[in-house]
Design a protein that fits this description.
Helices cover about 40% and strands about 20% of the residues. It is an alpha/beta fold. Helix 2 packs parallel to helix 9 and helix 6 packs across helix 7. The chain is globular, with a radius of gyration of 23 Å. It starts with a helix and ends in a 9-residue tail after the last strand.
């Protein structure tokens, strides 16, 4: 009896080992189908095919932007990463400070400029309901389900792109991170019409859409939003790392981690965030968004 028990235990140990090896090797996992209790195989993506990019939103290159940009530069050099600077075109055009902009000009290996709207907020006034909502996206207002008229959207996109063209900021004429990441189907179509190749926005307002090529433009929702504070707790580090992993496990090949400037204003705490994320994911490629267009 003892001999049979030992054989059974050995077989059980072997089967468990095979399942664990398959799981951690990224081969497959199994999910119980509640309807018929059959086993469904799910392929886990290889994370070395994934690009993760870091976006700092609401940049205008005013004097007050310097602290976040200088700290981002230190982190970029330390961890060999690139920061996307989501620039608000009109404010950049009217209020940018030459010394602040020089931080970008002197360090183009650490920074890449992408479009982040013309005004960032809407100049369309609807009703008191709009004013009471406290939300005002430039291209879509989800809190009251208001779609900005297509002609207004196109006017903003054209003016935005024109400012970036005038300043020879080529990447910002190709990549568009929509303010608040809120847009609708018109936003995608009009961005494509005006030469944008990639748009980052929520897709819940776009009918019958799955994340893939939309015409000639790529529309993506695979981003991790970091709330506007400058202290990261241990639980925060776990939460945001897990959010990134969830996106990759869903098969997405490009992930965008979205920051506010305040997230980078305390260097010690910002460093803790990047150290945790990068060292825990050695197989993930942290790269500029434009690298996805490289052949």
């Amino acid at each position: 009896m003892d001999g049979k028990k030992e054989v059974s235990n050995s077989i059980l140990f072997f089967l468990i080992s095979v399942m664990l090896i398959s799981l951690f090797a990224g081969a497959s996992v199994y999910d119980i189908n509640s309807k018929n209790s059959s086993l469904k195989q799910i392929i886990i993506p290889k994370y070395d095919n994934v690009r993760v990019s870091f976006i700092i939103n609401d940049i205008t290159f005013k004097k007050e932007d310097r602290l976040a940009l200088n700290n981002a530069l230190i982190l970029a050099k330390k961890y060999n990463i690139t920061f996307e600077l989501g620039v608000i075109a009109q404010q950049f055009n009217e209020n940018s400070n030459p010394e602040t902009f020089k931080i970008y000009e002197d360090n183009k290996d650490a920074f890449e400029i992408i479009a982040h709207g013309l005004t960032h907020g809407s100049d369309v006034i609807f009703t008191d309901e709009f004013n009471e909502s406290g939300s005002y996206g430039e291209f879509y207002i989800p809190s009251i389900n208001r779609h900005i008229p297509a002609d207004v959207q196109e006017e903003h996109i054209k003016k935005m792109k024109g400012i970036f063209e005038k300043n020879n900021l080529t990447t910002a004429t190709k990549i568009f991170a929509v303010p608040y990441y809120e847009g609708d189907e018109n936003t995608i179509k009009l961005a494509e019409k005006n030469g944008y190749k990639l748009i980052i926005q929520r897709l819940s307002s776009v009918q019958n859409y799955t994340e893939q090529h939309y015409g000639q433009i790529i529309a993506l929702e695979s981003y991790v939003y970091i709330p506007p504070y400058n202290i990261f707790s241990s639980s925060d580090l776990i939460i945001y790392n897990n959010k990134m992993m969830d996106i990759m496990a869903a098969g997405k090949k490009n992930v965008y981690i979205s920051f506010h400037q305040i997230n980078l204003e305390v260097l010690e705490n910002a460093d803790k965030f990047f150290k945790n994320l990068i060292e825990k994911n050695p197989d993930v490629k942290f790269a500029a968004i434009s690298s996805r267009f490289e052949k």
